[in-house]
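Two quick folds needed for the group meeting slides. Do the first one here.
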Amino acid sequence: MLCKLAWGNVRRAGRDYLVYLLTLTLGVTVFYAFNTMSMQVDIAGIDEEGLAQVMGSVLGYLTYFLAGVMAFLMVYANNFIMKRRKKEFGLYQVLGMGRGRVATIMALETVIVSVVAFVAGIALGVGLSQLMTFFTASLFKTQIANFHFFFSVHAFNLTLACMLVMFVLTLLLNLRAVRRTKLIELMGAERRNESIKTRNPWIAIAIFVVGVVLVGVAYYRLLRDGFPLTATDSKLQEAMNQFGITTAMVTVGTFALFWGLSGMFIKLLQSLRGVYWRGLNMFTVRQLAAKVNTVCFSMGVIAMILFLAITSVTCGMSIANVMNENLERYTPADMSQTYIYYTPETLDYYKEYVNPSEADRMVLADATVDLYAAWHGERKSADNNDETGKKVNIADVAGEHVQIDSYLSYPLGGSGPSVVAGEMCKAMGEKLPKALEGSNADAMGLFVTPASQYNKLRQMMGEEPVSIGRDQYLLTCDMGGELGELYTKYMTGGHTLTLGGHELKPATDKSDEDTAAIANSAMGSNPGTVVVADELLSQLNLQPYSSSLLVNYKQGMDTTEADESIKYTLLDNLLVDGKEPGSWGVFITRSEMYTQAAQMNGMISYLAIYIGFVLVVACAAILSIQQLSNVADGSRSYRVLAQIGCDDRQIRHSVMAQQAVFFLFPLAVGLAHSFVALKVIIELVSIFGSMSIGGTVGLTCAIFLAAYGGYFLVTYLMSAGMVQAAIATRYSE
């Protein structure tokens, strides 16, 4: 009997359960699909060691986040249903049904809806996970060789466990609500929910203005100061404190803005007599003013969450796109090996902060070494531990090769660079790029390299050599963006450089970016290098900083075979009088670089979309439930409007206008916050290259608007049905 009654209630109250069912179904779908990541990686042919484990670990932590979001939405939606049906449950008790039986009916209804949502969510999740396999392959730039249908038992069990926990939580809350609520409260729930309070409009306007001012000042501070990522150690704490103040200002300002919004609306529209008195505008404005009072906090929270979602997705995917676009420029050779020399600063650091005894085996480098000739050692196994005993000869695989020696712009034993970006900006009367402000960029300055090595690198990359005289210089930078523009402006302006007492003129009118990479890297290896004539360099006696050996394999040689031949080489320490002048740095092949970049970019994009979608759905669901609750609370008002002769279409338009305001205002504020933050982020990463976010913003907005707009449409359709039902009972009282 109770089961039949519960089933009938679910069918009859389908509109009430629709948002709850939709939210729960979407949650189950996303939860299952994203927890099949390890299987997607396998089928997509992403065989990089440890990637599936890393992704699984990261998604494991995000699983707890998604479970928390789902639990909150489930409880939130359930509270709406309880609020809608309090009168019905009170009627059951009036007719003699005990609270235990009422609670049982509630439990059975929750079971029915949860089972339907779970089955539908799993079905959609299974389908979505198959599609996401192709999406995953696209993100990680791999080909699916053998696609097959798959079902993850692990993801299923995890989703089921999460659902059971949330079901028990919801059931306990419902039972607690029925047990503690008096019968008179259940029967009078509808009338209590209709209570409307409005604030003093002048106070609301003042608070609104305060909110706008706080947000505006926060925008100004953020655009001026940026993010405290490039600050030096001495200024980092101060920068973090200032950033904390800015964050607090934009947060408080956002909530104040929404708090004062109701009064602002009613005062503004009341002054526009022609608009305020037209149709049902007066009723709509009063409803908006009253409702904003009760949901201003949640609207502020939603605006901030939308801001985080949009910013994280757009920023993550944009950075990934920048890396992909510049990858060819960042990888000039089939393989590269770097050697880092010890400088006076390095020795002082080891003696003071690391281990004085360790510094005893180190010696200040006074000359560079020939890395090609020094490349010898034992081959190691792939686990990087056991020696195979096989001698490695780089000449077996190397074709064209070049060594790029980089020097600091001060003599041996000295300190303080003579060529720095800050001084170049002063000479031009321009500001230092924001990405370099407050950083250690000027502490090291630009590097210096000989023209012969630079031209050999150009020839290896298929470019013509550049003539650089003894009294000339050329600036190179492989990062592009603001740094590349800075160096080009400096050379175009004919500005001179002073190096070791020698005044140098620009050899060309443009900085080299395309053939400036001195090693394979993910984000660029050359932040700024001065290329000078070999004759001049030999006279300057500069402090060596690093050497990079760049090698292209022999013509016709299999790349994989060549990589494996030298990949696991245990290189001997280079000794000068029994001491080390430096240490071996990064070894990376072009194929590894492309693989790592594709995987890193894929991971960033994947997680950004995952988090962003979950947050947007959560925001939309909260707004949807709030608006449906508001419509339910105002059912008596809509009946009154119908009784006095208002057209049904006018009433529905009033409902749509109200809901559009509540959906659009948080979105508009979230977008405004995002655009300001993205502007700062673009300036920050511009040091690595020009960052184009147009396509990413478009894709992000399309995804978000699809989810956001879908919830808005469902909310309005449900609201229209509730209004129609309320109007249909206009003569029942």
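Then this one, please, same format:
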Amino acid sequence: MSWMKWLPWRYLVKRVAHRHGFLDPIALLGKLHSFAQPSEVGEPIELLRAGVVFHARGLINSRVIQHNLDWVWPYWVERQFDPEDIAFIPRAFSITHINLSNRNWTAIGQPDVDELPVVDPRGLLTPFHDGWSLDAWLLADNGRCLLPSRCKTARQRQELEGGPCVVTESELDGLALTSRSRVVVENGRAVCEMVVKARAETSGSLVISLRPANPEGISFINKVRLSEQRDAWTIDGKQAVFFSRPAERHHVSNYREGDVRIHLQDKEDQCEGQCDVGMVTAAALFRVEAGEESELRLRVPLQDESAPVIRSDGWAAALHGHARLECPDENWQFLYDAALNSLVLHSPEDVYPGPYTYKRFWFRDAAFIIHALLCAGLTDRAERALYQFPARQLKNGYFRSQEGEWDANGEVLWILRRFHELTGRPLHPEWQEPVRKGARWIENKRLSENIEGPHAGLLPAGFSAEHLGPNDYYYWDDFWGIAGLKAAESLFAPIDRETGEHFGAGAREFSQTVDRSLATCEQRLKRPGMPASPYRRLDAGAIGSLAMGYPTQLCEPDDPRLLDCAEFLLEKCFVKGAFYQDMIHSGLNAYLTLHVAQVLLRAGDARFLDLVDAVAGLASPTGQWPEAIHPATEGGCMGDGHHVWASAEWVLMVRNCFVREEGDRLILGAGIPPRWLKQDKPIRFGPAPTSFGSVSVTITPRPGAAPEVTWEGNWHDSEPAIEVRLPETRA
């Protein structure tokens, strides 16, 4: 149908739009694209698709929630729709209602099991990705009802012994509920378990409610059926919830009849229900005697009989041989251990940057997460994830996670280099061609040196990391491109010297090109700090340019361009001690704050510790960070509520505080908080893989005298030069 290209589509679209009172969408898109640099791609289709799904949910939320505020909704709704709550957001003509104030949840699971249930800040359990949820209430016979999502305060913690377990405690006027949610192994299959304990001063009922909602909003339930034994639900004919004892009463409601909450004291019992709009709610009631504790166990099978059998000791096996931290700071200790659990949980084969919103693959996130796995000694798990990379490479050498992101190739080659450095192994034969093609793609993707402007010779304008801004010639991409070529040089040096030298020469030439471009920025801005791109002012997007120093180490620790960039960010872009990304994320970012801290640590700037402590203070009670944190509510305001890149950065931060590479040297103890040295308990970390071999570090404080630092190494070759840089302590 070649004739279709001759149709005057633009004219027709414009005419139809104007006839119906709409703006011309083609003209509008043209204006939109004019705010970015000319690029071969607009917004990546993958990102647009995710955005459509996200806002489709928000549209449904807007049609359902605000018209039914008498329903019991998840915690974020109860807060965000309350005009007296700090999390309140006016709705006005907003067509989508989205969780923008309390995007916090904690994943639970078993190693190498892909299903990752999440628990919200009030104990709401969502067993399946983007599915329905289970909530526990306590109803007294006098009508009082403890609804955790409506409690202003609650206590929540994560226990790590034997795998992650989220414990949530709620109280109200003599009513108390405790829930413990985890994933256990039964007969070689993963089962999501929720154990609820209820206590009341007066008699009443423990209520387990099936909810058509989750931490993102509405999730449809069309049909529910109670078993003949009254000890299980079947939901939409597919999934099941088992109770440890039969329900004494049971109620079901649909959208037209309202939330099952208003039917809890009905005399009539229902065993099944359905709803044509997918808003079934159900409640199973279990007797609670006055002054006695009642316990109920819920089981939700996550796998069917066709799934591979998993080990009952999966957590012990997965963490075997990891780099252990022993320190006097209980919070740092807990956050490190929780972060390790998070890394294991989200690397069943691929690596995911989150259990829910971000349960998919990106090379960028994967590189940082795998680096943390490597530096924590979880080498086999990291290697398994790396083996997934070649299949994702296009024939032209592009490692594409989404179109228009030009940093991926550099990140892939860099993390492959780090794997081989940290393990001491040569480049895997099956990885040689992907590395060669990946490095050539970087060379071929660069713009011509003969074009006019400071972007000559750089990588093209692209979308890059979404938090940097519209399509532009991002230095972030270029630094990763240089790092990728240097990695290819290093990887090929022992096996193909000519190829290695070729990529090394390419890296040096690329680096010189970037230096020339940065010189034009310095002249224009009257300071050496690096903007996000050659045409940008210094703004929050400059956070990407720190990649020159961390993690790539393409420059010396005291490079004035790097340090001035960090100073700008510290002066203009920090709120409550953390980096505030005012583009897209519009929140405090734990992992980006730690990027700045890493640059300061490397430069010997003691201010890094304030940033690390600020990040520790922003963690949820379960030891997790959302991608972006609301400056007022301190709840999540963007991205996944359990952000694994943030967990990875905490592991890497702790590791570098104890041991890090700098050229041909190992630096020990440079990031140890001085307060740790004012007590007498030994401080330990290791065995930690480094590019020279693995090392275990022990620091023995001696109040009133210099601490003793000892180490044990299992070196690839001879022991490297080692420099101890403990901080000064003041009485």
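Slide caption for protein two: The CA atoms of residues 178 and 596 lie 39 Å apart.
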